[in-house]
């Protein structure tokens, strides 16, 4: 199975999938459009979250970073008047240093990620969406800013006017992602932000055409008219989409076979038929590993029914 992932909602679903499927059967294609360089090192937040999940290091209270990490380097830099745009843990920073040194030595982001997976003892196939630089910028009333400045620096508060995924039209789908798509016809789009987490992946040249030939299931990150977490609502609205499960399904409709939305959502299952896809209700609020496993089992069962 191939899973398209951002950094929060989808990793919770991956937490269930890795309980019921052999990890070597899972290929996770991860958004890299939120990556940025901090203090000389490449930070890849969504990739790191997935790496830490599969290596049982993730801080499950925050769903990012390493559990019980310390922040002595960050604090010391602050004491010396050096302000970093992200609060990086010490062990987390080691990951960034290793990645960056590999890239400076000539490795691609894919090669660096594969090596980090090996260092962490991970059997799942974790891959960046592209080896080319892609960056998401948010247009706001306070100016244009990198996604991390908008979400981490400004806490997602500025009103959003638009989203610009820079470099995506010139980027290529990573070679190992293409190889995985050649071998596997099951694609799961996790409940990550459709605009800035999944959007960059499906906006890579040729990706939508590839997905049209696959069995594609997507899980909604929206319940009613609000996202489960994060700024998806603001971003969808700025891109002209209705903030609802229907809005998410419409965004994916050209390649979508089955759409899974929350049992608490009042959307009409039959309304999705006009988009050319099936719809199924489930409990998508993954408040524990057990809940994640139950949703994962439900989705795996649906794949067996997709023609």
Characteristic key phrases:
single chain, 307 residues, alpha/beta, Rossmann fold, three-stranded antiparallel β-sheet, 14 strands
Summary, kept brief:
Homodimer. The chain has one domain (1-34, 123-306): CofD-like domains (Rossmann fold, 3-Layer(aba) Sandwich). Helices cover 38% and strands 19% of the residues.
Topology of helices and strands:
Blueprint: E1 2-5, H1 9-20, E2 27-30, E3 36-38, E4 41-43, H2 45-54, H3 72-79, H4 90-104, H5 109-119, E5 125-128, E6 135-140, E7 143-146, H6 147-153, E8 160-166, H7 175-183, E9 186-189, H8 194-202, H9 207-212, E10 215-219, E11 222-223, E12 226-227, H10 232-238, H11 245-252, E13 258-262, E14 278-282, H12 289-303
Parallel strand pairs: 1-2, 1-9, 2-5, 9-10, 10-13, 13-14
Antiparallel strand pairs: 3-4, 6-7, 6-8, 11-12
User: CATH first level: which class?
Assistant: Alpha Beta
How many DSSP E strands?
Answer: 14
The general outline is: globular
Q: Any idea how many domains? A: 1
Strand order in space, largest sheet = 5-2-1-9-10-13-14
Taking the alpha carbons of the first and last residues, their distance comes to 16 Å
Query: Which fold name corresponds to the CATH topology?
Result: Rossmann fold
The CATH level-2 architecture is identified as 3-Layer(aba) Sandwich
H/E series: EHEEEHHHHEEEHEHEHHEEEHHEEH
The parts where pLDDT drops under 50 for at least 5 residues are none
State which percent range the strand residues make up: 15-25%
